[in-house]
Amino acid sequence: MGNRLKNIANRENISYVLTVGSILLIIWQISIFRKTFISVQIPLTITIGGGLLVFFLFRSKVSYFIDTSYNIFWQSIHAIILFGGILVFSFMAANYFITLDSEKTLRLEVIKVGNLAKGGSKYGSSCAEPYAIVEYNNTQKQLVFPCNTDLKNTKYINVVLHEGLFGFIVVKKMHPIILEENNAVEAENNLLKEYFQLLSAAEEFYSIGNLPKSIELYERAIELNPDDNLPRLRLTEIKGERDRLSESKSINLGE
């Protein structure tokens, strides 16, 4: 009898150690979830559904669940924490650490900024970590930053993305663009907007036969964006057409 009780106690101790380890993995998994573009329903389903599935498949073979005095409800809760925690961490960690493609650097617009709830204890209070909500591929994600990060004037976040093992996009690096950078980004966007408007207007004037106006607008577009060769080629074509028309008119007048 004494040996049996001792064995039960040993199994319970092992179970407690594994449960604590699983809880630590769940906490680690939360930090991974914060950097993964994935719906919260997926890790929840893996945790609850996977934990219960493993429990009901193997409960009759695990001596701890056979000998415990807890009813099946509390056994199920324990199994969700123990088995579900290990399963969800394995899934999220594999997707995060095993990437399938090369990195992709993007600038994502900030939808909303805020701060997480401020934690506290008898040893002091933790900061209310700032966060920014962004969207990629129709999925919104709350990106959490260190305590000293100022996101008040942030409109964009530079992120380095990878596709994870199971197809979910993960954020490997992120950098908020401060106010001065925001101004530069807005100026760049306005410049590109004006540039494309000039190209569109230049083609409209060309289509109605107003070559001088089309040439003027293409020249202005090249001044705004001298690195783009396409408008230069188009300008050369239109000028060539203008010169041919001029020569044709001169010949006709000479006759």
Q: What does the model show?
A:
With 255 residues, this protein is α+β, with helices and mostly antiparallel strands. It has helices spanning 2-33, 41-58, 63-67, 72-97, 179-207, 211-224, 230-254, and strands at 104-109, 112-115, 120-121, 124-125, 130-136, 139-144, 156-163, 169-176.
What does the overall shape look like? elongated
SS element count, helices: 7
Q: Find the structural class using helix and strand composition.
A: alpha+beta
Q: State the helical fraction.
A: 55-70%
Distance between the termini: 126 Å
Beta strands, count: 8
Write down the domain tally. 3
Order of helices and strands: HHHHEEEEEEEEHHH
Strand arrangement within the widest β-sheet reads: 1-7-8
The overall pLDDT average reads 82
What amount of the residues lies in strands?
Answer: 15-25%
Main beta-sheet annotation: 3 strands, antiparallel
Taking all Cα atoms into account, the compactness measure Rg is 32 Å
Low-confidence stretches: 121-125
